[in-house]
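Severity: low
Component: inverse-folding endpoint
Summary: output formatting inconsistent between runs
Steps to reproduce: submit the following C-alpha cells with default settings.
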C-alpha cells in the first residue's frame, strides 16, 4: 500500500507497526475485513502466530499512542511534535484502549512503544509524505540533487570519548553539522550501533558493525566513512543494495603500520621484549638473536602498507620478496622486489609479514599447511587482520618451535583475552595498535571529515568503495 494513498491514521499505523497493524487499523477505521480476517473468524486458532504478531503490533501501537497522550516521551523535536499533534487530533486514544489481545490485556512496554514511535517518525521523514494535523503535506527532502540541504547529524563512532577525538567534532561543527559521539566500543552490540546512528546522515565508523540490520533500522544514513583502511566491519554489499555510500581513508595508516611491523620484526629478532621481561624479574640472560640486516623479508600483499614496509626493509639492505596479485611494477623494479607464489615466499623468508585485506578469499590464508612451509627459524608478523591466520595453528607452530616466533597486532577476536599467548616467550603481542599513532590519527581524521563534507556538498570523494551507488543516485 503506497503511503500517499492512505488516510493519515492508517499512515501512522502503517509506519509504526508494519502491515499487520495496517490491516488491524484498516479494519478499525473502515470496517473492511480482509479474506484473511474472515478466514480467521471462521476457524480461529488461539495459537496462530500471525494473530499473536498482530496482537503484539496492536499492543505496541496502543502503547505508542498512550505514551504520546500522557506525554511520557521526552520533549519531541518538531516532527515528532507534528506527528503527535496529528495523532492526538485524529485519534481518541480511549476509543482504542485497552486494545483486546488474543491472550487478554498485555502489559504495555513503554520503551518499546517509544522505539516504535521513533521508527515511525524516521520512516515518515524518509518518505516523501508526512502528516501535519491530519492532512498530507509534501515535506522538503533534506537531500536534493545529491546535496544535503538541511543540518545533518554525523555520528562519530570511534573507540574514544569525545575529548580524545582530536579535531573531528570541532571540524564537523565548524562546518555547521551536528555531531553525535557513540561509544564506538570494539564489541559494540548491533542495537547500540543502531541507537547511536538514529537520524544521522553520515557516520565516521570505528570497529563497530555496519550490517544490513543496521542499514535497515537507520534509513537516513547515507554515508559510512570507515576510519582507517580495513572495512571488513562494514557489509559493503548490503550498503550498496540500500544506497548507502561507503568510503575509507586509505593512505593515512601506511607509515604507522609499516613502522610497527618493522618494530615487531626487530623485537622478535633481538628478543627485546623477552629481555625486558627477564630484567624486570632481576635476570640478566642475554640470549643470542638473529639479524634483520640483510635478511630475507617476505611481504604478502604489496599494497600501500606492504610497499611502505618494503621501503623501510630496503633501508636494512634486506632482500625483499613478495606475493601480490596486482603488483605496481614501477615500484617493484625501483626497489628490486622479487615477485613469487605465496608458497615460495613462505619457504624462502626469514620474516613473513601479512598486509592483505580480510575477505572471504583471504580467511585463514595462513593455516597449518602454510606454516609448515616456513623455515624453523623464521618469524611471522601479522599486522593485517586476525582472520588471515589460523590462530590455533599459529599457536601450535610457535609453541612447538616449528617456526621461530610471531609478532601479532591483529586478532581473530578483539580484544584478545586468550591467556595461552602470555605463556610463550617467542611472541610479541600488541593490541591492534599499529595504526594508533598521532600522525595516523591526524591524517585519518582530516580525510574522514573531508569525505563527509564532500558528500554532503554533493561532491564525489575519490575514496568511495561502492562508487556505483553514487552513479546510480546521479542517474535517478
Ligand atoms: N594493524 C592495523 O592497525 C592496520 C591498520 C590499517 C590497515 N590494516 C590492514 O592492512 C591491510 C592492507 O592495507 P593497505 O592500505 O596496504 O591496503 P591495500 O588495498 O593498499 O593493499 C592490499 C594489497 O593486498 C593485495 N591482495 C589481495 N588479496 C591478496 C592475496 N590473496 N594474496 C596477496 N595479496 C593480496 C591487494 O592486491 C593489495 O595490493 C588492510 O586491509 C587492513 O586489514 C591494519
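Observed output (run 2 of 3):
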Amino acid at each position: 500500500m503506497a503511503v500517499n494513498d492512505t488516510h493519515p491514521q492508517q499512515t501512522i499505523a502503517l509506519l509504526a507497526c508494519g502491515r499487520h497493524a495496517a490491516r488491524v487499523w484498516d479494519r478499525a477505521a473502515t470496517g473492511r475485513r480482509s479474506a484473511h480476517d474472515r478466514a480467521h473468524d471462521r476457524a480461529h486458532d488461539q495459537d496462530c502466530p500471525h494473530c499473536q504478531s498482530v496482537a503484539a503490533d496492536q499492543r505496541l501501537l496502543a502503547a505508542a499512542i498512550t505514551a504520546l497522550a500522557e506525554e511520557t516521551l521526552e520533549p519531541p523535536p518538531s516532527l515528532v511534535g507534528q506527528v503527535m499533534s496529528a495523532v492526538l487530533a485524529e485519534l481518541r486514544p480511549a476509543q482504542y484502549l485497552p486494545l483486546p489481545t488474543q491472550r487478554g490485556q498485555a502489559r504495555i512496554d513503554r520503551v518499546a512503544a517509544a522505539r516504535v514511535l521513533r521508527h515511525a517518525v524516521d520512516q515518515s521523514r524518509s518518505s516523501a509524505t508526512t502528516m501535519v494535523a491530519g492532512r498530507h503535506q509534501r515535506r522538503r527532502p533534506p537531500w536534493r540533487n545529491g546535496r544535503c540541504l538541511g543540518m545533518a547529524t554525523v555520528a562519530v563512532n570511534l573507540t574514544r570519548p569525545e575529548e580524545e577525538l582530536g579535531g573531528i567534532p570541532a571540524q564537523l561543527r565548524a562546518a555547521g553539522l551536528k555531531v553525535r559521539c557513540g561509544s564506538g566500543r570494539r564489541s559494540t552490540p548491533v542495537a547500540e550501533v543502531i541507537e547511536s546512528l538514529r537520524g544521522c546522515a553520515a557516520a565516521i565508523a570505528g570497529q563497530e558493525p555496519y550490517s544490513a540490520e543496521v542499514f535497515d533500522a537507520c534509513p537516513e544514513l547515507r554515508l559510512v566513512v570507515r576510519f582507517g583502511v580495513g572495512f571488513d566491519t562494514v557489509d559493503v554489499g548490503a550498503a550498496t543494495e540500500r544506497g548507502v555510500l561507503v568510503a575509507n581513508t586509505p593512505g593515512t595508516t601506511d607509515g604507522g603500520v609499516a613502522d610497527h611491523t618493522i618494530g615487531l620484526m626487530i623485537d622478535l629478532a633481538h628478543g627485546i621484549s623477552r629481555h625486558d621481561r627477564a630484567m624486570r624479574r632481576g635476570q640478566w640472560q642475554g640470549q643470542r638473536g638473529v639479524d634483520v640486516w640483510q635478511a630475507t623479508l617476505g611481504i604478502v600483499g604489496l599494497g600501500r602498507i606492504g610497499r611502505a614496509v618494503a621501503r623501510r626493509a630496503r633501508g636494512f639492505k634486506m632482500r625483499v620478496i613478495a606475493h601480490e596479485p596486482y603488483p605496481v611494477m614501477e615500484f617493484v623494479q625501483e626497489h628490486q622486489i622479487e615477485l613469487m607464489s605465496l608458497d615460495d615466499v613462505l619457504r624462502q623468508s626469514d620474516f613473513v609479514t601479512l598486509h592483505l585485506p580480510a575477505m572471504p578469499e583471504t580467511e585463514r590464508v595462513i593455516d597449518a599447511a602454510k606454516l609448515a612451509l616456513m623455515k624453523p627459524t623464521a618469524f611471522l608478523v601479522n599486522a593485517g587482520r586476525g582472520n588471515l591466520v589460523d590462530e590455533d595453528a599459529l599457536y601450535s607452530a610457535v609453541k612447538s618451535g616449528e617456526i621461530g616466533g610471531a609478532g601479532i597486532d591483529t586478532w581473530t577476536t578483539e580484544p584478545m583475552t586468550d591467556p595461552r599467548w602470555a605463556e610463550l616467550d617467542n611472541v610479541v603481542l600488541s593490541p591492534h595498535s599499529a595504526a594508533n599513532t598521532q600522525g595516523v590519527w591526524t591524517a585519518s581524521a582530516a580525510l574522514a571529515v573531508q569525505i563527509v563534507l564532500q558528500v554532503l556538498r554533493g561532491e564525489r570523494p575519490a575514496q568511495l568503495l561502492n562508487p556505483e551507488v553514487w552513479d546510480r543516485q546521479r542517474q535517478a
